[in-house]
UniProtKB/TrEMBL annotation:
<dbReference type="InterPro" id="IPR012310">
    <property type="entry name" value="DNA_ligase_ATP-dep_cent"/>
</dbReference>
<keyword id="KW-0067">ATP-binding</keyword>
<dbReference type="GO" id="GO:0003677">
    <property type="term" value="F:DNA binding"/>
</dbReference>
<dbReference type="InterPro" id="IPR012309">
    <property type="entry name" value="DNA_ligase_ATP-dep_C"/>
</dbReference>
<dbReference type="GO" id="GO:0051301">
    <property type="term" value="P:cell division"/>
</dbReference>
<keyword id="KW-0479">Metal-binding</keyword>
<dbReference type="GO" id="GO:0003910">
    <property type="term" value="F:DNA ligase (ATP) activity"/>
</dbReference>
<keyword id="KW-0235">DNA replication</keyword>
<dbReference type="InterPro" id="IPR012340">
    <property type="entry name" value="NA-bd_OB-fold"/>
</dbReference>
<keyword id="KW-0227">DNA damage</keyword>
<keyword id="KW-0233">DNA recombination</keyword>
<dbReference type="InterPro" id="IPR012308">
    <property type="entry name" value="DNA_ligase_ATP-dep_N"/>
</dbReference>
<dbReference type="InterPro" id="IPR036599">
    <property type="entry name" value="DNA_ligase_N_sf"/>
</dbReference>
<dbReference type="InterPro" id="IPR026333">
    <property type="entry name" value="ATP_dep_DNA_lig_pp_1105_fam"/>
</dbReference>
<feature type="domain" description="ATP-dependent DNA ligase family profile">
    <location>
        <begin position="302"/>
        <end position="433"/>
    </location>
</feature>
<dbReference type="GO" id="GO:0006281">
    <property type="term" value="P:DNA repair"/>
</dbReference>
<keyword id="KW-0436">Ligase</keyword>
Amino acid sequence: MKRFAALFEALDRTTRTTEKVAALAAYFRDAPDPDRVWTIALLSGRRPKRAVNTTELRTWAAEAAGLPVWLAEECHPIVGDLAETIALILPAPRRTSDDTLDDWMRRLLALTGQPMDLRRQAILDAWDRLAPQDRFLFNKLITGGFRMGVSQGLMTRALAQATGVDEATLAHRLMGDWTPDRIDFDTLTGAQDPGANASKPYPFALASPLERIEALGAPAEWLAEWKWDGIRGQLVNRDGAFALWSRGEELVTDRFPDLGPLRDFLPPGCVIDAELVAWSGSAPLPFAALQKRIGRLSLPKKLLAEAPAHLLAYDLLEADGEDLRDRPLSDRRARLQALLAAMPAGLPISASPLVAFDDWDALAAARLTARDRNAEGVMLKRRASGYFVGRKRGDWWKWKLDPYTIDAVMLYAQQGAGRRATLFTDFTFAVRDGEDLVPFTKAYSGLTDAEFRQITDWVHRNTLERFGPVRRVPPDLVFELAFEGIQASPRHKSGIALRFPRMLRWRQDKPASEIDTLDTLRALLAETQPPRG
């Protein structure tokens, strides 16, 4: 753990990319193999299931520190981080430990599902053996809120320097459903049995937001397609393995049994990049239809009939077992079209239609019709581009429609977390319904720190009631909210739920009497719903 703590400190004290990469590369060269695997896992989001909840941690830490629980809880918003709060209030350790990161992670894994008394004793014992900085990291590993300021791409670059393995090769090897307690470092990063990971996807290529379309040059160099509002995924049919992976590297094949027929008709040795959508029979349904299926353990026949899954294919990454990612997009797209054309009609897959345009004005006009197709805008991809790893500016761009907006008033405020733990940043908003104010959404992003500080001062001066960490305030502050979608929701008092709400700006120029109404939201909902029947 000491070596891992030293790495954390080295990364925390610099913002320079070169220094972060150097620190990681040195760690990957020198650390024990099991610790290297765990570090790769932690930096790529593979954290073990939480064995202890935050309430238990606060209670046990207060007990160890000889403090009342309420006082420990009051310390949290002042420090801004629960793991750091606990590390600060605990008494000095009475023992020492030379255990490695792997030792501690396996102990945490073993606690999952154990009785509370056993878990409590194990955590108290760990705190009594770890130095303050090691305790802080240990607490972070328990809570799952682990951040080192390092992207997966940065970590892969450092790993490539330490091992001599090509970055793109490493990025592919790190994909999939491997777990750090069941794989060794050489298997993860070195030569592997080609059949051992037949279902493994490729790292996803990502687009950057477009700012000025005129800067792209000649329109003939670009291919345009709709930016669908679904779940990005890769369909893999290779060496007998049939798998659907989400962009978050989650294996979701079993959640979409209606894609099963593709197993019998896709040629072996192919990988397709696509958007998973709910399908009306000829076009995508709104994301809300697909959302009903997400997270469901069982799928009733009625839901499968109402929102059948369909893949809109963007790209062909592998064909006949050959990696095509270095080929130009125009070639990959032609092969994708030929592959799909050779398959029987009626299967739950089709090519994502291209957007025809001769000049940028024509594309801009087409983009404005995106919502009519349940799309978010258009994608622009250079015809000569390869399928790269991660986000590479210059070749792929996303040109989204402007979001929906509405003016609402703040009713409740709650303090944030992390560096914003001392500020009120999480707000509940309402619109008017006659003479009443109806809460309809929450938002916590979009403003500057200076604005949050100003609002925090106002909340302190104007609190009407406190409900634990939540403050009720007078309905005076008006905000313009932006959101990407709207859907009916019987779980909300307003009957409406927004998708990706955030604060666009604080309307200090507008009184609460001029905010929007619930009827405004209902009208927007009616406009965006698919026709029935």
